Amino acid sequence: MLQQITRGIKITVKTSFEGTFYKNYKMQFAFSYTITIENQSKDSVQLTSRHWRIKDSLSRIEHVDGEGVIGKKPVLKPGDSHTYQSGCLLSSPFGNMSGFYNMVNFATSNQFRVVVPTFNLSAPFALN
Questions:
Q1: C-alpha 124: how far from its chain's center?
Q2: Where is each ApaG domain found (predicted)?
Q3: Which one of 28, 51, 72, 113 counts the least CB within 10 Å of its CB?
């Protein structure tokens, strides 16, 4: 489990290897991740968008931008948290993801970024 706090917003990440399968005649490695976003600040905030940098061990990098997370733009009052699960496919058994959430503070109307710490994705059968 990995944690990081940016401007009072705590991000917790847990990952899991889900298995392998073939897609378009290429082996794919499936990973899931569960992220909890906890508002430890004194103001209400809303997550508006996200950016991901996904890298596999073959040095392939993919950037993903989108609104909200899994179709939601959660509003978090002080003390609230939002947990969601998503996943990604890699072309290798190792990789990592990093990124950020764009958020808005309702008290000040200021937008800010919350860093999602780099988290590793690794298939357990490939580890020594």
A1: 20
A2: 3-128
A3: 72
Q: Identify the sign of the CA torsion 16, 83, 110, 102.
A: positive
Residue type, position 126, single letter:
A
pLDDT tens digits along 65-124: 999 999 999 999 999 999 999 999 999 999 999 999 999 999 999 999 999 999 999 998
Q: How many CB atoms lie within 10 A of CB 59?
A: 8
Burial class (CB in 10 A: 0-12, 13-18, 19+), 97: buried
- Residues 6 or more apart whose CB falls under 8 angstroms from that of 42 comprise 8, 78
What domains, with CATH codes, occur in the chain?
Answer: 2-126 (2.60.40.1470)
3-state SS record for the chain = CEEEEECCEEEEEEEEEEEEEEECCEEEEEEEEEEEEEECCCCCEEEEEEEEEEEECCCCEEEEEEECECCECCEECCCCEEEEEEEEEECCCEEEEEEEEEEEECCCCCEEEEEEEEEEEECHHHCC
Type of residue at 96: N
